[in-house]
Design goal:
The protein is α+β, with helices and mostly antiparallel strands. The chain has three domains: 80 residues, RNA-binding S4 domain (Structural Genomics Hypothetical 15.5 Kd Protein In mrcA-pckA Intergenic Region, Chain A, Roll); 79 residues, 2-Layer Sandwich (Pseudouridine synthase); 103 residues, 2-Layer Sandwich (Pseudouridine synthase), CATH 3.30.2350.10. The chain is built from seven helices and 18 strands. Strands 1, 8, 9, 10, 11, 12, 13, 16, 17 and 18 form a ten-stranded mixed beta sheet that branches. Strand 17 and strand 18 form a beta hairpin. About 12% of the residues have low confidence. GO terms for molecular function: pseudouridine synthase activity; RNA binding.
């Protein structure tokens, strides 16, 4: 239950914030200047791999009830060499780094040529080098998202402002490629073409997202955000009674450093010794109750109160909190609220019992 908010004058404020920043040339999209040419593995068999187009076909979306789905499609994942893969075998990397399939499945895909090294078949025991490129061809199935479309709030030659619904990632990552905000905006009916996100909000968060029309505009707006000429505000429904002392005049400031616990899952936590500096300001706006249907699914340790004394009528005490991040660490607001003992009420990661 988190939402990014913005004032009605966002476009004018953004252009004003960017106006006085120094201009710089935008980087070429997709540039690979200075990148060494991938080497061919000496142990690659000569039989060519199956032909799978590197570019996926256009998406075919459809709705079922409140959900938007996309038909499965052929897709090729491409990964350039990472430092931790050097000196390891092809099979070892897939069996330990990509955990969505078993080692037996990956062995079969390597044998059949659906996993390749530098465009050619390779043996499972091939030792990876510094310039290798791995490709994995498969039939991709994306998770469903809410069928609610993004709402276009503003558009000009440099900027697009939309209201993103929850469940939708801003850009392709992980399990999502077409089920993303940028893909939905590029497709009819809006057909806005290629866009460059200026700010990003979590997949489960709804609210304002700024997207530039060109790389140059994205660089200038990004610089304005880095210089804190643009401020972000979120609303969150949190568990428990948030402190009444957190007011507009004197917000509650959390400056607990945050570190990553698990990169693959994107989990973060407060770590005073190893975390990066973070700061979030919180203001309580109101107290309330979650309805009984929501309270039934509350996790262990949640603050429940029965109004009538019946367990069936149990409701959970919550607060509506305004959140203003000063820094922009991953999951910063969610982690800071969990650290304060008031996680977002329906947060699937940080409101679970292992986190408090």
């Amino acid at each position: 239950m988190a939402r990014a908010t913005a004032a009605a004058a966002i476009p004018a404020a953004i252009h004003a914030a960017c106006r006085d920043l120094p201009r710089r040339a935008a980087p070429a999209v997709g540039a690979t200047a200075g990148q060494p040419k991938p080497s061919m593995p000496s142990s690659s068999p000569s039989i060519p791999p199956p032909t799978v187009p590197l570019a996926p076909p256009p998406p075919v979306w459809y709705t079922e009830g409140r959900l938007r789905k996309v038909q499965p499609y052929p897709y090729v994942y491409t990964s350039r060499m990472k430092g931790r893969w050097l000196g390891r075998t092809l099979m070892d990397v897939f069996a330990t780094e990509f955990l969505d399939q078993t080692a037996d499945v990956y062995a079969d895909k390597i044998d059949r040529g659906f996993i390749t090294l530098n465009g050619s078949r390779a043996r499972p025991d091939h030792v990876l080098g510094p310039n290798d490129v791995l490709r994995h061809a498969l039939h991709r199935h994306e998770p469903p998202i809410l069928a609610t479309p993004p709402t276009l709030l503003y558009a000009d030659a440099q900027l697009v402002v939309v209201d993103k619904p929850p469940s939708v990632p801003v850009h392709p990552s992980g399990r999502y490629h077409f089920q993303t905000l940028t893909a939905l905006l590029a497709a009819p009916p809006l057909a806005l073409g290629e866009l460059y996100p200026v700010n990003r909000i979590d997949r489960l968060t709804s609210g304002i997202v700024l997207l530039a029309r060109t790389p140059r505009a994205a660089a200038r707006m990004g610089a304005a955000m880095a210089a804190r000429r643009l401020a972000k505000t979120y609303l969150a429904v949190v568990r428990g009674r948030f402190p009444d002392s957190a007011t507009m005049a004197a917000p509650l400031v959390c400056a607990a450093p945050i570190a990553c616990v698990e990169f693959k899952m994107g989990l973060n936590h407060v770590d005073a010794a190893n975390g990066k500096p973070c700061e979030t300001h919180f203001v309580k706006l109101a107290d309330g109750w979650l309805p009984a249907a929501s309270a039934e699914h509350s996790l262990p340790g949640s603050a429940k109160t029965s109004v009538t004394g019946s367990a069936d009528d149990a409701r959970e005490l919550v607060s509506l909190v305004l959140c203003r991040p000063v820094t922009g660490r991953t999951h910063q607001i969610r982690v800071h609220l969990q650290h304060l003992g008031h996680p977002i009420a329906n947060d699937p990661l940080y409101a679970t019992s292992p986190w408090g």
